[in-house]
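Class, discuss our next protein.
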Amino acid sequence: MIEVSSLRQQAVLSEAREAYGPRGEEQQVFGFEPVHGNPRKPVLTGFRAVNPPARPDQKSVPAFRFIDLFAGIGGLRRGFEHIGGECVFTCEWDKYSQQTYRANNPDDNHAIAGDIRAVDTGAIPFHDVLLAGFPCQPFSIAGVSKKNALNRPHGFACEAQGTLFFEVARIIRARRPRAFLLENVKNLVNHDKGNTFRVIRDVLQNELGYNISFRVIDAKSFVPQHRERIFIAGFLDNVGCDLKDMAIPDPLDGPRLSTILHPEDGTEPPEAHFTTGANAAVSAKYTLTDHLWSYLQAYADKHKAAGNGFGYGLVGPMDVARTLSARYHKDGSEILIRQPGKAPRRLTPRECARLMGFDQPGMSEFRIPVSDTQAYRQFGNSVAVPAVKAVAMHMAPFITKAMNLPETEELLLAHG
């Protein structure tokens, strides 16, 4: 039964697509698969003939195609590749993020587009799913506070970044993907007394005609970090997807920092630049200077006396960290690791890769080709990959259901 399901999907996405256009007449094929029991032998034989076993040098046919907007270093992408998708278009303006993205996706056969405002929708290939982590600084609590202090506009009033959501809407309107996932900071819901989110929902639901659901998810269920982000899932057809139905592990049972820290006991090979010596001890350069540590302590005491919440976050192996931010390269104050008998240290970029889920605990496979400053910025701006994977897995059956529906004339025109 499992084999025929897999072979059926591959057949639909290859042979039927070639015969009937970009989507294929999938409904003509699904009738062969029984609801219960094993498929008839001629059916299974037929699918095997259409889909012979792949050679080691062959890529399997993807379950769906997606595009990656405001891609950063590919966090959203990893979640949807995990459920069988193939990325066919990438857009990211930052040249250093592009460098990291390319290093970790060397087999892409498409270039990375830069400024999304300059992207012609006609140049974007057909896709089933759109992913976009549009800039969060205009809506984040820290971003809004900073802009208020500098008397600068924020939210949609920020012309540099706040209006980029409408670029996502422009592409959705032109290409009509079956589904999308948007991601942003938790404060998007409450920004400007809720008016910002009301505008976004109105555009997605009423102007573009999508069925949406949203949920704020704290990544500490998956990684040892308190990181709340809003995910907005949209489907062109009402397939019944609701993120509020998604099962999420109890955050109290989530992992601790010991799972992402360098063990410094020789069980991990040294990694040049981050760790040194036979025991792979963390390089001394990540330890704060006495001057900086004294400054952070005095700064925290000053604000504590004034009744403010500003201060550093001092943590150990059994703790959960605060949110890693793009400013971590400045002083590392939000996540400082205790060290006996000396000043605390910053996380290394490798530990940040693990903290964000780009690397598994104890692994060092994610390529970091940029400076520490750029790496901290990139990880601080990214999504927690395991959280995205959980969202993608929840959406997966609904994506399949949506793709199985026949296309309207509108979709045929939009998909080219």
Observations:
- The first strand starts at residue 64 and ends at 69.
